[in-house]
Automatic annotation (TrEMBL), chain A:
Similarity field: Belongs to the binding-protein-dependent transport system permease family. HisMQ subfamily.
PANTHER family for the chain: AMINO-ACID ABC TRANSPORTER PERMEASE PROTEIN YHDX-RELATED (PTHR30614:SF37), MEMBRANE COMPONENT OF AMINO ACID ABC TRANSPORTER (PTHR30614)
Record domain ABC transmembrane type-1: where: 92-392
Designated name of the protein: Amino acid ABC transporter permease
Organism ancestry: Bacteria, Pseudomonadati, Pseudomonadota, Alphaproteobacteria, Hyphomicrobiales
One of the GO BP terms on file: amino acid transport
Membrane topology classification: Multi-pass membrane protein
Compartment(s) of residence: Cell inner membrane; Cell membrane
InterPro entries the UniProt entry points to: AA_ABC_transptr_permease_3TM, ArtM/GltK/GlnP/TcyL/YhdX-like, MetI-like, MetI-like_sf
From TrEMBL, chain B:
Protein name per Swiss-Prot or TrEMBL: Amino acid ABC transporter permease
Gene3D superfamilies, alphabetized: MetI-like
Bilayer disposition of the protein: Multi-pass membrane protein
Upper classification of the organism: Bacteria, Pseudomonadati, Pseudomonadota, Alphaproteobacteria, Hyphomicrobiales
Organism this protein belongs to: Rhodobium orientis
PROSITE patterns for this protein: ABC_TM1
Location in or out of the cell: Cell inner membrane; Cell membrane
Length: 404, 448
C-alpha cells in the first residue's frame, strides 16, 4: 500500500526522521537481511562442521561413479555399470513419462466427469458426483497402495497369461500388449505419418480461414483421416512392409522357470507404472472435474440459449460456444493441478517405481550424499514447476479475452 | 349475474358459474414414470447413457457389498478364520482397531490420548459453529491452554531445560537466567524504540512483558512433574500421529502464512522478494522431498549437541511446506478486501500493524476460512507421506500390520485399505462439507 505523504510542508520540520516511512522501511529490511544472512551462515557453518565430524563426502564427483544397481524401467540405455548421473537422468525421464501420460489421462477423465456431473441425466450426474467425492477425499498414497498391493497383486501369477482381451494380458509381471517393431527401412513410413499429421493441421487452418471468409465448409475430418491412414500405408507398402508387430510370446511348457511371457516380446507396462499412473490420473481427475464444472457454470446461461437460438445442437453448443469460453476460467487452476500431479508422482518412491525421487533415494543410501541429492530433487521439481507456469501463463495470455 | 329461472336450460349452456376441474396430467408425465422419462430416457442417447450408468453401478456396487458383507468373515481369533475368505476379514480389524487409533502408545496410558482428543474437540466446536458465543475465549483456550495441555498429556511433561549460551553449568537455573536476560533485552529495546518514535512506549513494553510472562508460565508448567509416565514419540502412531501432524502443521502454518502473505503484499522490495522466494520454493517442490530434507538434512543444519526427534523433524518440514500454501490462501483474502478498507484505516491515522490487525486481517481471515479448511484437508491427506520417512501414521500402521503373521490372509490388505480409506474419507468429507457450508454463509453477495 503506497502511502503518499500529503502533509503540509511545515509538518516535516516537526516530525523526527525516525517516523519517516522510508527510513523505517530501510531499517527493517536491513534488519531482516542481517538476520537471514546470520541464519544462512549459521546453517552453512553447522553443516560444514557436522559433515567433517561424520566424515561424509561432499561434492559432485559421485555423479561419475558406477551406480551398480539396476533400474526396472529405462527409456535410455542404462545398466549396472552406468554412473550415478545417468541413473538420476533415467529417473528424471521416468518422472516425466508418468507425469506426461498422467496429465493427459487426468485431463481426459476430468473433462468427461466434469461434463457428466452437469448432465441432465440423473444417473450419470450422480455417478460422477460419487466418483468425485469418494476419490478426492482419500489420500493419494492410499490409492497408490490400493492399486499396487491390492489390485495388481491379485491378478494371475507370473506363469499364467491373464488375458483381458485377445492380445492384451495382465499378470503380476505387468500388462502386455502387441508392440510394433520398426525394422530397417521403416523411417519413410514414420516420416509419412508425421507429414500427414502436419498437412492435416495445415488443412484445418486453411479451412477455418476459408469458412470465416466465405462460409463454405470443407470436410476436414474425413480428409485428415484419409491422409493419416492412406499416406503412411502407401509408403509402408511401397517400402516393402518394414514394420512388423511383436506379439507377447507365452510359454507354458518346458522348464518351470522359463514359463510365462518371454522377455523382449510385445510391449510391457510394469505394475509399478500402471498403479502409479492409475492412482495419479484418477485422483487428479476428480479435481480437474470440479474445475471443469466450475468453468462451465461460469459461462452465462444466455450463451447456451443464444446458441440454441442459432440452431446449434447441444453437442456443438458445448464444443463451439461453452468450452472455449469456459477455458479461460479453467486454465489457471488446471495448471496448478498439472503441477500437483507432477509433484505427486514423487510418491512413486513408496512402491519403488524408479522415478527421480526413488532412484535418488537409492543413490542417497549408497553414497550418503544427502545434500547433493536433495538439491538435485528440489532443483528439478522447481524448474519443472517454473517452466510449466511460464508456459501456462503464456498460453493463458493468448486465450484471455481481449477487452476494450 | 341474475338468474332467471324462466329459461334455465339456455342459461346453463351459456354461462358456467364454476371452473371445470383440471384434468389430471397424463400418467406418463407425472410421478416416478414422468421423472424417469424427463431425466433418464428423454432421448435415445440419454437412454444409452442411463443404461451405461446402471451398468457401471452394477459393476461396482454388488462386488463391494459382497466383499464387505456377504462374503466377509465376522468372527475369529486369528488368521485361520480368514484364510479361505473371499470377503473382508473383520476380526483382524477388531483385533487391530485400537492400534490403528493409538499406534503402540502404552495401553494404560491411552486415556491421556482420549483426554487430549476430548480437550481438542471442546475447544474446536465453539470456534467452528458460527452461532456459538465465547469465540475469543475459545481462541485463547486453543492457542495457549490446549497446546501445553496436549504436549504434557501426550509426552508426559516434566521437561528439563539445559539453557543455551551462558558460560555456567547446564541446568534449569541457566535456562531461566537466560530467559530473563532475553526478555529484558527485547522489552527494553522495544521500549526505547517506541519512545524514540513517540509511541505509547509504556503500554507496548507492558504488553510485551505480559507476553513473556505467559511464555514463562507455559515453560514452567511444562517442566512440572505431574507424575505421568513418559511416552516417547516412536511409540505414537495411527490416527494420533496423523492428527498431531495435521493439527500442528496447520496451527504453525497460520502465523507464518499470514506473515508471508503480508510480506508478499508489502511495498518493501526486499521483504517482498524474500516472501516470494520462500513461498514459491516450498510450493514448487513435492512434500516428500521436503520430508526427506527435514529428516536427513535438518540434523546437519543444527549445532552440535542439539537433536530433534523424528516426529519433530517431520513436523518442521510439514509446517514450512504448509505455511507456503497458507500464505497464498491468506493473500487471496487480502486481495479480496476492498481498497476502501485500507484507505479508511489510513484516514483514521492507524499505523500499519494497527490497520492490519484491527481492520484488514479480521475481514480477510474470515473470508478465507473455506480456503484454510481446504488447506487443512490437503494437509490431512498428505500426512500419510510421513510413512515413507518411517513414522507410523494411520496408513503406516495399517501397512505395518500386514507383516503380522497372526493375521496374514489373502484379503487382509484389502480390508486394511478399506478401513483406512473409510476413516480418511469420513474426516475429509465432513471437513469439505463444512468448508462448503462456510462458503455459502460467507458469500453475502457483496463481492465486486
Amino acid at each position: 500500500m503506497a502511502v503518499e505523504d500529503a502533509r503540509p510542508e511545515r509538518a516535516t520540520d516537526r516530525a523526527s526522521w525516525i517516523n519517516d516511512p522510508k527510513v523505517r522501511g530501510a531499517f527493517y529490511q536491513i534488519l531482516l537481511v542481517l538476520a537471514l544472512a546470520w541464519l544462512i551462515w549459521e546453517i552453512i557453518d553447522n553443516t560444514r562442521t557436522n559433515l567433517e565430524q561424520r566424515n561424509m563426502a561432499t561434492g559432485w564427483g559421485f555423479l561419475d561413479e558406477t551406480a551398480g544397481f539396476g533400474i526396472i524401467l529405462n527409456l535410455i540405455q542404462y545398466s549396472e555399470i552406468s554412473n550415478y548421473g545417468r541413473a538420476l537422468f533415467v529417473g528424471f525421464l521416468n518422472t516425466l513419462l508418468v507425469a506426461g501420460i498422467g496429465v493427459f489421462l487426468a485431463t481426459v477423465i476430468g473433462f468427461i466427469v466434469g461434463i457428466a456431473r452437469l448432465s441432465k441425466n440423473w444417473v450419470i450426474s450422480r455417478i460422477a458426483y460419487v466418483y468425485i467425492e469418494v476419490l478426492r477425499n482419500i489420500p493419494l498414497l492410499l490409492q497408490i497402495f490400493f492399486w499396487y498391493f491390492a489390485v495388481l497383486r491379485a491378478v494371475p501369477g507370473k506363469r499364467e497369461m491373464g488375458t483381458i482381451v485377445p492380445g492384451v494380458h495382465l499378470n503380476i509381471a505387468g500388462l502386455r500388449a502387441p508392440a510394433p517393431v520398426f525394422e530397417e527401412g521403416s523411417t519413410p513410413t514414420v516420416i509419412a505419418l508425421i507429414l500427414a499429421i502436419v498437412i492435416s493441421f495445415v488443412i484445418k487452418g486453411w479451412s477455418a480461414k476459408r469458412q470465416a471468409a466465405t462460409g463454405q465448409r470443407f470436410p476436414v475430418l474425413w480428409t485428415a483421416i484419409g491422409l493419416i491412414v492412406v499416406l503412411p500405408l502407401i509408403v509402408f507398402l511401397a517400402t516393402g512392409m518394414p514394420i512388423s508387430i511383436s506379439y507377447p510370446e507365452f510359454r507354458d511348457t518346458g522348464p518351470m522357470l522359463m514359463r510365462g511371457f518371454q522377455e523382449g516380446t510385445g510391449f510391457v507396462l510394469i505394475p509399478e507404472f500402471l498403479s502409479l499412473l492409475l492412482a495419479l490420473s484418477l485422483y487428479t481427475a476428480t479435481f480437474i472435474a470440479e474445475i471443469v464444472r466450475a468453468g462451465i457454470l461460469a459461462v452465462s446461461h444466455g450463451q447456451t440459449e443464444a446458441s440454441y437460438a442459432l440452431g446449434l445442437r447441444p453437442g456443438s453448443t458445448l464444443r463451439l460456444v461453452i468450452i472455449p469460453q469456459a477455458m479461460r476460467v479453467i486454465i489457471p487452476p488446471l495448471t496448478s493441478q498439472y503441477l500437483n500431479l507432477t509433484k505427486n508422482s514423487s510418491l512413486a518412491v513408496a512402491i519403488a517405481y524408479p522415478d527421480l525421487v526413488s532412484v535418488g533415494g537409492t543413490v542417497l543410501n549408497q553414497t550418503g550424499q544427502a545434500i547433493e541429492i536433495i538439491a538435485i530433487w528440489m532443483l528439478v521439481y522447481l524448474s519443472i514447476s517454473l517452466l510449466t507456469s511460464a508456459f501456462m501463463n503464456w498460453y493463458n495470455k493468448r486465450m484471455a479475452l481481449v477487452e476494450r | 349475474m341474475t338468474m332467471t329461472h324462466a329459461d334455465e336450460s339456455t342459461s346453463e349452456a351459456y354461462v358456467r358459474d364454476r371452473m371445470v376441474e383440471d384434468a389430471a396430467p397424463p400418467s406418463s408425465s407425472v410421478g416416478a414414470i414422468g421423472w424417469m422419462r424427463a431425466n433418464l430416457f428423454s432421448s435415445i442417447p440419454n437412454t444409452i447413457l442411463t443404461l451405461l450408468g446402471i451398468y457401471i453401478v452394477y459393476l461396482v456396487v454388488p462386488p463391494l457389498i459382497e466383499f464387505t458383507l456377504v462374503n466377509a468373515v465376522w468372527e475369529g481369533e486369528d488368521r485361520t478364520a480368514c484364510a479361505q475368505a473371499h470377503g473382508a476379514c473383520w476380526p483382524y480389524v477388531e483385533a487391530y482397531f485400537w492400534t490403528f487409533i493409538y499406534g503402540r502408545y502404552p495401553d494404560p496410558e491411552r486415556w491421556r490420548v482420549n483426554l487430549t482428543f476430548f480437550l481438542f474437540a471442546i475447544g474446536l466446536v465453539p470456534l467452528l459453529v458460527p452461532q456459538m458465543p465465547f469465540k475469543r475465549e475459545g481462541l485463547i483456550y486453543m492457542l495457549a491452554f490446549f497446546p501445553v495441555a496436549a504436549l504434557i498429556l501426550l509426552t508426559g511433561g516434566d521437561f528439563t531445560y539445559a539453557g543455551f549460551f551462558l558460560p555456567m553449568p547446564e541446568g534449569e537455573l541457566r535456562f531461566w537466567i537466560e530467559f530473563l536476560l532475553v526478555a529484558a533485552a527485547v522489552t527494553g529495546g522495544i521500549y526505547l524504540l517506541t519512545r524514540e518514535a513517540g509511541g505509547n512506549a509504556k503500554g507496548t513494553a507492558l504488553s510485551i512483558l505480559a507476553g513473556f510472562g505467559v511464555l514463562a508460565a507455559l515453560f514452567f508448567v511444562a517442566s512440572i512433574d505431574f507424575g505421568l509416565v513418559e511416552v516417547e514419540t516412536p511409540l505414537w502412531g495411527g490416527l494420533l500421529v496423523t492428527l498431531v501432524i495435521a493439527v500442528t502443521g496447520i496451527a504453525a502454518s497460520l502465523p507464518i502464512g499470514i506473515a508471508l502473505a503480508l510480506g508478499r503484499r508489502s511495498n518493501l522490495p526486499i521483504v517482498r522478494l524474500i516472501s516470494v522466494i520462500f513461498i514459491e520454493f516450498w510450493r514448487g517442490v513435492p512434500l516428500i522431498t521436503v520430508l526427506f530434507m527435514s529428516s536427513v538434512m535438518l540434523p546437519l543444519f543444527l549445532p552440535e549437541g542439539i537433536t530433534f526427534d523424528k516426529l519433530l523433524r517431520a513436523l518442521i518440514g510439514v509446517a514450512l511446506f504448509a505455511s507456503a500454501y497458507m500464505a497464498e490462501v491468506v493473500r487471496g483474502g487480502l486481495q479480496a478486501i476492498g481498497k476502501g478498507q485500507y484507505e479508511g484505516a489510513m484516514a483514521l491515522g492507524l499505523r500499519y500493524w494497527q490497520m492490519m490487525s484491527k481492520i484488514i486481517l479480521p475481514q480477510a481471515l474470515t473470508l478465507v476460512i473455506p480456503g484454510i479448511v481446504n488447506t487443512f484437508i490437503g494437509l490431512f491427506k498428505d500426512t500419510t507421506l510421513v510413512l515413507i520417512i518411517g513414522l507410523f501414521d494411520l496408513l503406516g500402521i495399517i501397512q505395518s500390520s500386514y507383516t503380522d503373521p497372526n493375521w496374514a490372509s489373502p484379503t487382509q490388505s484389502h480390508t486394511g485399505y478399506l478401513v483406512a480409506a473409510l476413516i480418511f474419507w469420513v474426516f475429509c468429507f465432513s471437513m469439505s462439507r463444512y468448508s462448503i457450508y462456510m462458503e455459502r454463509r460467507l458469500d453475502t453477495g457483496h463481492k465486486r
